[in-house]
TrEMBL record:
<dbReference type="InterPro" id="IPR022284">
    <property type="entry name" value="GPAT/DHAPAT"/>
</dbReference>
<dbReference type="InterPro" id="IPR045520">
    <property type="entry name" value="GPAT/DHAPAT_C"/>
</dbReference>
<dbReference type="Pfam" id="PF01553">
    <property type="entry name" value="Acyltransferase"/>
</dbReference>
<dbReference type="InterPro" id="IPR002123">
    <property type="entry name" value="Plipid/glycerol_acylTrfase"/>
</dbReference>
<keyword id="KW-0472">Membrane</keyword>
<dbReference type="InterPro" id="IPR041728">
    <property type="entry name" value="GPAT/DHAPAT_LPLAT"/>
</dbReference>
<protein>
    <submittedName>
        <fullName>Lysophospholipid acyltransferase</fullName>
    </submittedName>
</protein>
<feature type="domain" description="Phospholipid/glycerol acyltransferase">
    <location>
        <begin position="113"/>
        <end position="248"/>
    </location>
</feature>
<dbReference type="GO" id="GO:0016746">
    <property type="term" value="F:acyltransferase activity"/>
</dbReference>
<keyword id="KW-0808">Transferase</keyword>
<dbReference type="Pfam" id="PF19277">
    <property type="entry name" value="GPAT_C"/>
</dbReference>
<keyword id="KW-0012">Acyltransferase</keyword>
<comment type="similarity">
    <text>Belongs to the GPAT/DAPAT family.</text>
</comment>
């Protein structure tokens, strides 16, 4: 049976006998309640007055938005939708920790759940509802982008709890009023709600910065903003549940990496859906759904208020809490570790060489008690061989077996794909990598160098904090106090207990003897990408910057540097990484033109060149000589205008 027929038949099976309007003849409960709610009526009247519009006109608009986003749970439709989801997931075995699910189900009996999930694939929207419904959870209402509201399929999905919402609503205040009120009513009715904390799929494999829209409306719903309104007094709390979904491999990663190299995003339509369905014919291993530590949203907001953190800052803090808990719940996959080993080497390795690289990583993961997907033994030869074979079968790796023993390497144009898989676990390695750079900085101190209070160790702490600031748009770091606590843990793992004094010689000895070495494996791709952007920014002197032009220039020069081996890997040539570097430059005030900004841009590039140099030294210490031609510092040259 073709993918077209299968999608069509399963969709028809899920449809009610008479589709008619997109919604059932009687509107969902929340829509009816809102239309008759006195507070909502006052809000609509106030919106009309504020905008200088006729109230009936605003009512017509808001009712249209409510019907557009409203969802229901129809038993027959939901059963058919679950079958469609199982068919889309046929490339995977879905693994769920049943103990975690049992605990979550107990919570479901007494609380409304706000399920905030990571978003690596369109399949996430099938993994989570199917896992919950098959374990008899209360119906879950999931927020999805309006771009997925396709004909027929959208009609079916809205009857299974999928709430289609628009992404850009800044210029539609009435839409925001409708959505905020709808979410408040869902919380009042103790519905379970699910949404991606990232807003959209990650293009790099690691968590994107959180989007605050849905979370802001949820916090509004659980807080008492109107002491004269009984509805707010009676509003129930919700339990926020961080969820992580990670896959051994994903068919759609190759399309996302093409976008990272500048290709246009494929629009979601029926043809896209059929192509996506066809891709799932090929088995890709397992999908892992894991549950992070739940918390009370109301209690967390009260804690922050007691600390003097309110409003948007409080929402930001809660969003970061969720992201940290998702990361802590995300298991290490064998695919990620093998990708890490091969990306770090960027040459062909035997299975023994892969195992040699993985073994200290496995020991580190054990020491930090990070979860491993499927309880896999990362030191097991058969486990590593199977991962190599699966990555070769999907084209991420190439294998050569005509010599004395087989060897594997990253395939041509597959570095970004392998990096996507590696990045699913990169968050557990970043602080260790920064700790290595801190030790290296101490080891490079000149005899007789002037030291701050605290001596050599303080030099190391300052370097770690500098790297944290440099990478703060790339990774989720804890607060400064939490970061220092984590670094102390890493220092104990690196050098043992009781280290209170440090000398350059001792730092060098400890660094050389440490295992594993991670800075070159973890940080170099990001620092290389940042350096490309910083170099192109410095090339513009004091002049203003067109961001689109800077990104295009960085992409072109990055490809040149990859060919010249001025960057260690092709994975650094990525618009996603360049955009993050651009965000950092914007934060530093380097994008606005003006007198003196050229010198600041040069200093930014020099800082990154030195960071790359030191990361490469870690690679050499690790026994992986880095064959990289260091980009020279830019020389003064005529401006583009003069050249023109």
């Amino acid at each position: 049976m073709t993918a077209v027929r299968r999608v069509r038949d399963l969709a028809r099976a899920a449809l009610p006998r008479s589709v008619g309007e997109r919604l059932p003849a009687a509107p969902p409960q929340e829509v009816t309640q809102l239309i008759h709610d006195k507070r909502f009526q006052r809000a609509v009247a106030a919106a009309a007055d504020e905008q200088g519009r006729d109230e009936e006109e605003v009512w017509s608009e808001v009712k249209g938005y409510l019907h557009e986003m409203a969802a229901a749970h129809d038993d027959r439709t939901s059963q058919g939708w679950a079958r469609l989801g199982d068919w889309f997931l046929r490339a995977y075995d879905v693994l769920v920790d049943e103990d975690d699910m049992q605990e979550l189900r107990r919570l479901d009996r007494t609380h409304s759940l706000a399920l905030a999930f990571s978003h690596r694939s369109y399949l996430d929207g099938m993994v989570i509802p199917n896992a919950l419904s098959s374990r008899r959870f209360s119906p879950t209402y999931t927020f999805g982008g309006a771009n997925l509201n396709l004909p027929v399929i959208g009609t079916v999905a809205s009857r299974t709890g999928l709430i289609f919402i628009r992404r850009s609503t800044q210029e539609i205040p009435v839409y925001r009023l409708a959505l905020r009120s709808y979410i408040r009513q869902m919380v009042t009715n103790k519905r379970n709600l699910a949404w991606s904390i990232e807003g959209g799929r990650t293009r790099t494999g690691k968590l994107r910065p959180p989007v605050h829209g849905i979370l802001k409306y949820l916090t509004d719903a659980v807080e008492d903003h109107d002491a004269g309104d009984s509805l707010d007094h009676d509003a129930p709390d919700v339990r926020v549940v961080p969820l992580s979904v990670v896959y051994d491999q994903l068919h759609e990663v190759s399309l996302m990496t093409e976008e990272a190299r500048g290709a246009n995003k494929t629009p979601e339509d029926w043809r896209w859906l059929v192509r996506f369905a066809r891709l799932q014919r090929n088995r890709l291993g397992r999908a892992y759904l894991t549950v992070g530590e739940p918390f009370s949203l109301r209690e967390r907001m009260a804690e922050l208020a007691a600390e003097g953190v309110t409003g948007h800052q409080a929402v930001e803090r809660v969003a970061l809490d969720i992201s940290h808990r998702i990361n802590r719940a995300t298991p290490v996959t064998t695919t990620a570790i093998v990708s890490l080993a091969l990306l770090g080497a960027d040459r062909a390795l035997t299975v023994d060489e892969v195992l040699d690289t993985v073994e200290p990583l496995a020991a580190y993961i054990d020491a930090r008690q990070w979860p491993v997907a499927g309880a896999a033994d990362l030191r097991d030869r058969a486990t590593i061989r199977r991962a190599l074979a699966e990555l070769t079968r999907s084209g991420v790796l190439t294998a050569y077996d005509r010599g004395t023993e087989p060897v594997w390497k990253i395939g041509d144009d597959q570095h970004l794909v392998a990096a996507f898989y590696r990045n699913t676990v990169i968050h557990i390695l970043v602080e260790r990598a920064i700790g290595e750079l801190a030790l290296l900085t101490v080891s490079e101190l000149e005899p007789g160098a002037e030291l701050p209070a605290g001596g050599e160790l303080q030099v190391g702490w300052e370097e770690a904090k500098r790297m944290r600031d440099l990478l703060k748009f790339e990774f989720f770091f804890p607060s400064r106090a939490g970061f220092e606590d984590d670094l102390r843990t890493e220092l104990r793992l690196l050098v043992g207990e009781g280290v209170s004094e440090m000398t350059p010689q001792k730092a060098r000895e400890l660094l050389v003897g440490a295992r594993p070495h991670l800075a070159h494996l973890v940080l170099r791709p990001f620092l290389d990408a940042y350096l490309v952007v910083a170099d192109r920014l410095a090339d513009r002197g004091d002049g203003p910057v067109d961001e689109a032009d800077l990104l295009a220039d960085s992409l072109a020069v990055g490809q040149q540097w990859a060919l010249q081996r001025r960057v260690a890997s092709e994975e650094s040539v990525s618009l996603e990484l360049f955009r993050t570097a651009l965000a950092l430059a914007r934060h530093k005030g380097l994008l606005e033109g003006g007198e003196g900004v050229g010198s600041a841009r040069e200093a930014f590039a020099a800082e990154l060149r030195d960071s790359v140099r030191r990361v490469n030294i870690i690679g050499e210490i690790a026994g992986e000589p880095v064959q990289v031609v260091q980009p020279p510092a830019p020389q003064p040259q005529p401006s583009r205008r003069e050249n023109a």
